[in-house]
Amino acid sequence: MYLRSVMMENFRQFKGRHSFPLAPGFNLIQGPNGTGKSNILYAILFGLYGRTHKGMVASTDLISFGEEYLEVSIEFENQGKRFQVWRRCGRDGKEAFSFSEWSDAQQKWVKTVTVASGKTDLKARVEQATGIREMVFERIVFAEQKVFYKIVSGGTENKDFMDNILHVLPLTFIKDAIHEMVPKKAEVEARAGLLAAHQDAIKNNEAIIARTRPLLESANQKRRESEAALATLKKNNQEFLNIDRALQQSRPTVDRLIALDNEAAGYKRAALELDGKVSAFQQQHGTREQLDGKIAGLAGTIDSKQRLREQLENSVNVNKAEEGRLDQAFRTCYDQIRKMEGLGGPRDIPVCKQKVSRAHIEAEIGKQEAERARIKANLEKLAAGIGKLQAEIARVKGEADAAKAELDQVRALASELQTLIKTRDDNQKSAASKSAELSRLVLDFTPPFTSQVATFNAALGKALSLPPQPGVLDFSTTHDAMKQTLKVKIDEFTAEQERIGRDISDAASQAAAHAQTIAGAETSVKGAKEGIRKLKVKAIIENKVAHLDGIMADLIREFRERKVEQLNEYTVEWYKRLVSVPTFRDIRIDKEDYSVSVVPVQSIVSDGDFKDITKYASGGHETFVGIAERLALIEIFGTNFGVFDEITDNADKDNATNVIVELARSGEYLDQVVAVTHFEVGLEMACNIVQVVPVMDPASGEYTGWSTIGRATSKADSSMQEEGER
């Protein structure tokens, strides 16, 4: 895998757009100190993986001062396929990116990952296309300034760095975690004390169980005996309860006998009282027959008076009609007289239209007055007759009303007598009916009640009995006597049941308390045994942990030794490849802190001849070994690509030339090596050179920025062309 070109815009010092080519083999980035050469390498890191170098906290920190965004585009090739990664970051933190693959068929870039796909997909696609994981690129492929050659010095910091790279550190973390689980002396002693406490607890609680079990059995035995006595008592009491229930069932019949007897007696008393009232009533007012005869006579009198009254009223009506007729005739005569008197002389008679004389008129007036007098006399007679008739009618009406009043009184007396007689007869019938019902009920009830008395006598040892012909009072008295006796007996049994129940409750409470004591002791024993088991299990685990701690220590030591041996072997091999005239006969990397020791060529290889490289070798030779070790790590992790920042930082100009010349040979073994130097030496060894030069403002004479000039050397592929952009 190798990079073909880099484009960056507004990245750190590089304002505006800058792009330059890179070639397979050894590429050299050269320029004075402070011109931002290292930022080109950080642009590669950011472009591929979106990472910022240490010291930068956010992508926005990479944007050139005064600018609003940055862009980086990296084109690379791997196994004949070309790819391009493009990233953009704004001052507001918004990011955009894409991943594209060159299509020979379409002759254009085809995007396969965009912002919509997400950063995770972009990272996975870059790692797949480059064949280099992000962690490997950042820690191994990308050798930062002063870091790549410091790995030869050893020390704690370098050890952690190398352990992390070689995957030893995760094993160390596991080993430390396991070591933390190894018990300390105080924990072992505390566990021993806890074990003894558990054993004492088992002994003490087993003693409590042994003492309490007999007490529990005694309480249970007392409870069982009391329960048996209670069962017997309940059985005996049940017989009395059955008798009492039978008496309760027969009590309604006894009450019915008493009620019937009282009802029959009441009816008889009422009948006697009513019979006396009937006799007294008949003596005072007569018998029913006498009253009926009187009623009949009064009814006949009322009828005759009524007929007479009707006759008189008819006569009055006839006379009144005649009186009306006479009164009308009188009025007619009166009118005729008035008319005649009004004539005064011969006049035409209105009726016949004839002329009559005054004498004739006066004669006619006399006749009419005579007729009027006669009619008036008749009217007066009729008026007198009508008055007599009306008086007679009033007399007859008074006699009739008196007869009716007397009739109503007689009828009321007759009704009252009838009611008394009927009520007396009804009471006599009811008395007979209740007596008959009472007799039947006594006859039916006597046998079962006699049997109840016999059962009662047998159960309670009594001698109650009924007479041969028992009365209602006999049933009631006997029933009350049995009920009272049973109540006393049942109350005695109930009191005894309550006493035995209290005994059972007390025994059960004692048994429960003893059982609780035993259960608590057994729980304590179980807990103590479980505690002992856990302590034993913990001891077994801790022993295994201690054993595992030793195993991990051996494993880490062996793992580190093998990794260091492999790294040592590859480092020696790379040293031989890079250095044409070796200064050291042998190189040894310490298996504990990774410090490097060397044997000069003039010495014989032995343990005594190995010298600490930091104290023995010059900066240039130390750098050679550091580069060889870094290339060895690149090879171990299977990559063919390396980035070195300021490889000549620890060397003078002469040594810098040698370092560049020697490092250039790595381009013969790797796909691509990109290195940075501030020395303008060894440029002819590079396949491609990127020079970073300051730009001066002609007007002010001040430096206003930097520019990059990329050019291919004779070692570069002929397709590489010079590019330069401000």
How would you describe this structure to a colleague?
- Helix 6 packs antiparallel against helix 9 (472-578) and helix 7 (288-343) runs antiparallel to helix 8 (358-460).
- Strands 8-14-15-3-16-17-18 form a 7-stranded mixed beta sheet, sandwiched between helices.
- 26% of the residues are buried.
- The chain starts with a strand and ends with a strand.
- Helices cover 63% and strands 15% of the residues.
- Among the domains are: 2-153 and 595-725, P-loop containing nucleotide triphosphate hydrolases (Rossmann fold); 267-459, Helix Hairpins (Orthogonal Bundle), CATH 1.10.287.620.
- The model is unreliable at 714-726 (pLDDT under 50).
- It has 726 residues and is an alpha+beta fold.
Q: Which percent bin holds the helix content?
A: 55-70%
CATH C-level class of the domain at 2-153 and 595-725 is Alpha Beta
End-to-end gap: 28 Å
Named CATH architecture of the domain at 2-153 and 595-725: 3-Layer(aba) Sandwich
Strand order, sheet with most strands: 8-14-15-3-16-17-18
Uncertain stretches: 714-726
- CA-based shape: elongated
Q: Report the count of strand segments.
A: 18
Strand content: 15-25%
Oligomer category: single chain
By secondary-structure content and strand pairing, the structural class works out as alpha+beta
What Rg is obtained from the alpha carbons, in whole angstroms?
75 Å
Number of helices: 12
Largest sheet: 7 strands, mixed
| CATH structural fold name of the domain at 2-153 and 595-725 | Rossmann fold
H/E topology pattern: EEEHEEEEHHEHHHHEEHHEEEHHEHEEEE
Mean pLDDT: 83
CATH superfamily of the domain at 2-153 and 595-725: P-loop containing nucleotide triphosphate hydrolases
